[in-house]
Amino acid sequence: MSKIEFISPEGLRVDGRRPQEVRKINYRLNLFSRADGSAYYEQGNTRVLAAVYGPRQVTRRGASKHDRAIINCEYSMATFSTGERRKSAKRDRRSTEISVVIRQTFESVILTHLYPRTQIDIFMQVLQADGGTRCACINAASLALIDAGIPMRDFVVSCAAGMIDGVALTDLNYIEDSAGGPDLPLAILPKQNKICLLQMDSKLTIEQYEEVMQMAVEGCKQIHAVLDAKLKDVTDQLVNKRKTLL
Amino acid sequence: MSESDVVTPGTRIGSVDTHISGRGTYTRDGRICASVVGRVVTKDVPNQDKKIIEVESKQETTVPQIGSIVLATVVKTTTQFAKVDITCVEGKALETTFMGMIRQQDVRATEIDKVVIYESFRPGDVVRAVVISLGDSKSYYLSTARNELGVVFGTSMAGQTLVPVSWKEMECPKTHLRELRKVAKTI
């Protein structure tokens, strides 16, 4: 059986990256006029859309909280996002789990106490899946929330890391993801150095775990640097064009 | 942190020892941090040596809070209350409306047990009111029990814009028919 060579003798990965290198990131804000905030985010070949509505009146009766806003998240994958077309990817086990995980992430970050009795809806759709979709969705949602002007404690960024053939790798793509090694999605608050999401399903030794964890943190920091720099740039341009942000 | 710098959420912009946390900021461990993307602005406060530090952002979402003056459209009236849609909070238009309720006892300050809702508001009227409580799970409770609160815009049976004549009457300019309303005193 011929095995794919995940790490070349030169130490490069299948797509030519070094182990600690994240994929190319690009994003755009404010795509939709109906949503309060929206973002298109691409990380390598993974492409996602996020739209934020709210704070608005609670739609489900009895769900509203008198002292804070409630957050709704919906993660879905477009039928054409994967190699083989799927009939309907909506509301399956996996997307429900990811929706809950993302909701919990943002519940700890958004200053919900400012908007009692309202709800904030975050919708995310994967347009093209190439590994790391849940991390890409968190980044896209984070940008969409910023675009909507919803106050947050910090700029959440997320990145996954894994280990193949004993080498820790950051930001796995689909081929590396399907190698069956451990996958560790992580979301951090970069300015406060806090973790707000950490998942891992597989077993790792403490030493390997530390290594993978370090890789994920590095990936998050790289992504944060790119997102933050571009965001400041875009906002600066807006300020210069309009002289004011209001 | 200098003025007019663009900051992102989580950036430390000052300390509570030197500044007061304003809009678009929050405090954590004695530090003031930005909560939105925008420019840092400091403002002087009269008779205080600390300055207010704010982050001026692109758009701000407002929600009704206790004590805020709102504009609302009457949707439905019953003998007990008038149901309204809050469309404007403190002079800022909302993206989506919030449901509100003006109960019989909150229409005016005096003779509150003699209030007849239908002689105070009609569906379609625009009312200026104050939020008195967050109310039940569905709607905010509003009150018009002040001179400057009440109907600010209404249409007559003939479809004309009503003109206020007293604190409880409005007149149609076409038919000169007087209709009963809890009229807001123009300030």
UniProtKB/TrEMBL annotation, chain A:
GO terms for biological process: nuclear mRNA surveillance; poly(A)-dependent snoRNA 3'-end processing; rRNA catabolic process; U4 snRNA 3'-end processing. Residues 21-151, 154-219 form the Exoribonuclease phosphorolytic domain. One of its GO terms (cellular component) is cytoplasmic exosome (RNase complex). Gene3D superfamilies: GHMP Kinase, N-terminal domain. Its main location: cytoplasm. SUPFAM superfamilies: Ribonuclease PH domain 2-like (SSF55666), Ribosomal protein S5 domain 2-like (SSF54211). The keyword Ribosomal protein does not apply. CDD domains: RNase_PH_RRP41 (cd11370). Pfam families: RNase_PH (PF01138), RNase_PH_C (PF03725). It is found in: Cytoplasm; Nucleus, Nucleolus. InterPro entries: ExoRNase_PH_dom1 (IPR001247), ExoRNase_PH_dom2 (IPR015847), ExoRNase_PH_dom2_sf (IPR036345), PNPase/RNase_PH_dom_sf (IPR027408), Ribosomal_Su5_D2-typ_SF (IPR020568), RNase_PH (IPR050080). Keywords: Cytoplasm, Exosome. The keyword Cytoplasm applies. One of its GO terms (molecular function) is RNA binding. Belongs to the RNase PH family. This is Exosome complex protein RRP41. It comes from Acrasis kona.
TrEMBL record, chain B:
This is Exosome complex protein Csl4. One of its GO terms (cellular component) is nucleolus. GO terms for molecular function: RNA binding. CDD domains: S1_CSL4 (cd05791). The keyword Cytoplasm applies. It is found in: Nucleus, Nucleolus. Keywords: Cytoplasm, Exosome. Its main location: nucleus. The keyword Cytoplasm applies. GO terms for biological process: RNA processing. Residues 65-145 form the S1 motif domain.
